[in-house]
Structure formats: C-alpha cells, structure tokens
Amino acid sequence: MLVRDWMSEQVEVVQPDDDVAAVQARFRQRRVRQFPVVADGKLVGIITDRDVRSARDLAAKVETTMTANPVTTTPSTLVEDAAELLRRRKVGALPVLDGDALVGIISESDLLQALIELAHVLEPTTLIELECTEGVPPVHRIRALLERKGGHVPWISAVPRPGGCVRVALRVRMPVGHVPERILEEAGFPVLSCVTGRGTALVPPSADSYSI
Length: 212
Fold this sequence. Notes:
This protein is α+β, with helices and mostly antiparallel strands. The chain contains six helices and ten strands, in the order αββαβαββαβαββαββ.
C-alpha cells in the first residue's frame, strides 16, 4: 500500500500573508486540523489548529505562526513508512510532494485506516466450496450462519451445475478458534473443498455465477 492510495488529493492551502484569524475561521468551517502553507506554488510551511489556538495575536500573519519546512512524504512511499515518520516526528499530517509539487496530504486518520485495511488483508481467509441440491441455493442461510459466529463473508456465489445441483463458493474470514468448514458441516452443508490463504489471493467469483 502506497501513500498515493490513501492521501487526500484535494488539498486546501493558505498563504504566508493570510491573517491567523481568517485561518481560524477556515479551520472551524472545514473541520480539518492542518493547512499546508504555499507561496509562489511551493510548499513553505504547515499550520495546525493547535498553532492557531495558541496564537496570541489573531491579526498576525500565518508566516509568524506556521512550522516552516515541514516534514513531507511522497506518493510512492509505503504507508507503514509514512506512519513511522509521522510517529517519529510527532506531527498530525504529512504534505505529499511529487518533486516540488504539492499533490496531496495524508493525515493520522488516513494512515490509521490504511493500516487497519492492511491488517485485514494479511489476516488468513478461507475459500470454501460446497454443493447444494436444493432448488434455491441457501446462500443467505450460509452467510448468516457464519456471521453469527463472528465471520466476515466478502463474497459468496452460486453456480448452477448439471443435474440440478448448485455449486456454492465463498470466501470467509473467521475469528481465531472458529473453523468455518466445521461450522458448515455441522449445519448440514457438505464441504467439497477448503483452502486457507491470505488477503485477496483467493480467486473471486467467476463471471457465470451470481453473488450475494
């Protein structure tokens, strides 16, 4: 995962000669925590809501309150490296530069969401196939059965087979200690195959199936 996938590309900026009072109003309106400071098209600083709250003179200019030459990152930086930089430098956001051009900003919350997603991708998931002879494949029942045990089913599909059978395939992530194929077997669904892998490496539903 790279910074470019999680940064905000629509970046609001302020100027060094803007009044602190005006920036304070923008913080209240936009509900953000920092603005990059740009002069002549180049990043020269960053100002945070904390800087503004600490300012003694709201008529002062941004350049007297901002942090000059802020720490930055790039679009091709790994999100875990950006998170480490943010933690080490104790800042709330990183302007994203492509050369000298400001192309985005990535915040603590952006990086936290990215790392949560990364953790989910690395969790083991199980691809299960089973065959049903019922006229209507019980996909809703199968999903509900696993979700009651704390499982997450990213997809479940059903493909008609010769002889009136339906092949059901699903990918499921279960909490530690829960075995999805055992849960299905005990509920009367004979499992044909079961493969455990990580992340999205398991194959998604085929084009001739329907997913629910």
